[in-house]
Amino acid sequence: MSDYPEHEKLEKIADKSQFLGEFLEWLQGKYTIAEYVDDTLWPVRKSIQQLLAAYFEIDLNALEREKEDILEAHRQGVR
Predict the structure, then answer these.
(1) pLDDT tens by residue, 21-38
(2) Which residues of the chain have pLDDT under 70?
(3) How far from 2 is each of 6, 7, 9, 77, 78, CA to CA, in Å?
């Protein structure tokens, strides 16, 4: 496993994520995406990025920490 597991997961699903993201963008332009909460239908108040991360089991907080680690490694000249 790499030092950046969330980035590794993201790389593996990039094509699927891109396709699904474009579909969700189109869908949001035409309809309201909603979910049932306690038998009541509520609009989903999540970004497309958050929806995709949940679907593909990507931890956005861990992904952000990995980005910071990558940037720090490049600042220090480590690859």
Answers:
(1) 999 999 999 999 999 999
(2) 1, 78-79
(3) 9, 9, 10, 19, 15
| Domain boundaries along the sequence of the chain | 5-75
Cα–Cα distance, 35 to 14 (Å, whole number): 25
- For residue 54, the surrounding DSSP H or E stretch is helix 48-56
Structure tokens at 54: 């949940």
| pTM of the shown model | 0.81
**What CA–CA distances, in Å, run from 60 to 32, 52, 63, 72?**
24, 10, 5, 18
Tokens representing residue 35 in the block: 């979910």
